[in-house]
Amino acid sequence: MKVAKKEISNGTHESHPESKLNGTGDPLLESLETAVESALRGRAPGSAERFLHQLTDRLRDGGMETSRVVSTPYINTIPVEKQAAFPGDWEMERQIKSFVRWNAMAMVVNANRAHNGLGGHISTYASAATLYEVAFNHFLRARTEDFAGDMVFFQGHATPGIYARAFLEGRLHERDLQNFRQELAEGGGLSSYPHPYLMPDFWQFPTVSMGLGPILSLYQARFNRYLRARKLVSGEEPKIWAFVGDGETDEPETLGSLTLAARENLDNLIWVINCNLQRLDGPVRGNGKIIQELESVFQGAGWNVVKVIWGSDWDKLLAADKSGLLLKRMAEAVDGDYQKYSVEPGSYTRKHFFGKYPELLELVNHLTDEQIQKLLRGGHDSRKVYAAYKSAMDHKGQPTVILAKTIKGYGLGEAGEGRNITHQQKKLNEKELREFRQRFGIPVSDEEIAETPFFRPAHDSKERKYLLNRRKQLGGSLPRRVVTAKPVEVPKLDFFGELLKGSGKFELSTTMGFVRILSLLVRNKTIGRQIVPIIPDEARTFGLDALFREIGIYSSKGQLYEPVDKKSLLYYHEAKDGQILEEGITEAGSMASFIAAGTSYASFGEHTVPFYIYYSMFGFQRIGDLVWLAGDIKAKGFMLGATSGRTTLNGEGLQHQDGHSLILSSTVPSLITYDPAFTYEVAVIIADGMRRMYADGEDVFYYLTLYNENLPMPPMPDGAEPGILKGLYKFKTGPDKAKHKAQILGSGPLLREALRAQDILAEKYGVSADVWSATSYKLLRNDALQTKRWNMLNPTQPARKSYVEQTLEKEKGVFVAVSDNMKIVPDQIAPWVPGGLTTLGTDGYGRSDTRERLRRFFEVDAEMTVLATLYALAEKCELDRAVVGKAIKELGLDPNKVHPHLVGA
Known about the structure:
By secondary structure, the chain is of the alpha/beta class. It is built from 37 helices and 20 strands. The strands form five sheets. A six-stranded parallel β-sheet has the order 10-7-11-12-14-13, with helices on both faces. A five-stranded parallel β-sheet has the order 1-2-3-5-4, sandwiched between helices. Helix 28 (620-632) links the parallel strand 11 and strand 12 (638-642). The longest helix is centred in the first third of the chain and has 25 residues, at 90-114. The N and C termini lie far apart (68 Å).
């Protein structure tokens, strides 16, 4: 292209006798013709296509709109003449790789020999060994005092290979490998997949839930840029590496956010997709080509794509192919064909691949069948892989994806190489072990082979020295999780003093209260800069647009346009150092940012405090897998499910009204869950949460419900703080003089319905009801379960009582709970409530209507709470049932109404 550009600028060219544009008088066209003819004469594989790519790029750089080429020929992107030289000791690295292969295989085989059914995966690492070894030996930089370290998302099913390498480095012992997938074995064992929660000094990122590693890597790369833009971190920028399976790309989370990386120019991001053409049950694209398909997707999304399809053995064949038929045949064969070629002898490939065209048969006449069978795929060729990685490291302005073609189960031979059963292969017989040993030159004797012993060369061996020296040059071992973040001074409760005093006659929602809390926090001198507000395109819904102008929305490009609402106080303000992450309509992306921010203490040694506020319904049921991962990775921060409640969010209907996230949240062990009714409760919870996570260093994170119903916020009662945090406290005592007694537990906005029921019960039915605020049924249940367990394991000791038992044991009357969530939420504490618990909740699909009608429909309003209380008293024989029947009429209730859970069924 440089030649063509020079000719264009000089206006000179030499005519070619076959030029079809000659004599046009247009210097541009004639110079282009010269370049085309030059490319055709060269006949280097793919030269014409590369020329077209360069031409397109040059025209686009010059401001001319042209169509972007999204698919190139089925050959390596990097031509031989531009391939970076391999800098290491190739033979030494091959030998080390063979040792890792053997130990990875031995781990799985030994575990399943000792305990049939433990599982594990041999084939994924077998196909990806070269991809990993080249990265470990030459590219992946560990964390040092001066460098945060590259962040590597390892493919989950390749875990045995990562353990095997750590064993060679001396980081793991033989006992560790022997106890693979046996974490409860004596002395401990190794987790099945990358789990920081289980191996907190080893694994950095959980990745085995398919698709989550890729999307996390995208948002981690962007978050790293956010931290730099806001001057929270400095120094050399880490690279983000994500090793991905080609079958994994079918997960929506894998490819769904690709354009983010391109438009943010995330050249700190490198993906390596191991295209072994197989998923669990069969080919990824048996009738097509997954590499070509992915190339089109990534090219179209704006990524730099590097294909590593053919090993070095193919270079001479491609150079000798003057007809272009080899390139044509490569394009014709589908992935199902290539899978077949990997399991058949060379004679089969000679006949069925090369044999389609006589000229191709002549091209390989000098090769034996064995040589044809050993023609390497690019992902197994260290030189080709190194060149691709070097190219990716040097590339600027775009993220890079490397599409590397491999064979699943490479090296397993008849035990599963390239076969559909490969992913499930757990065992090898003695014959297969001998073949594996022979193929990779493992120094294990015939007497030992049947026991599949682990092998590690002596510490002073040339292999160990080389291995350790390479890692020393790159900063140390990987993977490794290091936590150096120091405790942070966080605001105490009195910092939120104005929110503890109530709102008087002014009405506001807990969402509005939270926005005020967030506004105070971002202005706090000690921690304000570390607050990371995260919003999936709902800022105006929640009232957070008030922060747009004050702290700005992060954009790597700043604001290149004048907003249509620039003259308004709350205009959409983007800035290069903006603090808000406004993610657009992507809860998965927002959660990925939450995880990146919530783990910065481990990634960078610097705390950031994410507050991720989202539309409640679109949290757990949409991105529950990422929430579970947040617990595994020990993320810290606050998730806030706004517009919560099946009846509080009026008008929206079935797909929006959330009454079950509190149940879903209860399944995550390290997630602290609250359902506050008032702003002061929100303030108490957030203040305590910040202390626990950022001052005391607890590995927990928080989920709070927020509601959009405006009501007068009361001041915090004296002494309420401990009960708020433990999950239950008495909010308002009933009148002294009454014939009957009851206790009503309310949560969220329905605490106000409980208060209204308190008045009705006292005025009409002679019942004094105390009203309690139940802020966390999950915490109450967990405490009760722990107490019960202690009592069971210590039967001779005086029995302990849980907090809920201690709190309620002296209270009189019946107990009724009402919330804007399913009945199963308060039912969590039913076994520990004296005399049992009558529960009202919002089981069933939501409806579009007013709050009043919705609460009557779901039977959670004050009138139903009164009825439930009277009925519970009647059940205890403390009240005549006739009173209950009369109350149904007086309260305007319909006894023939269909249960809301069954409506429409």
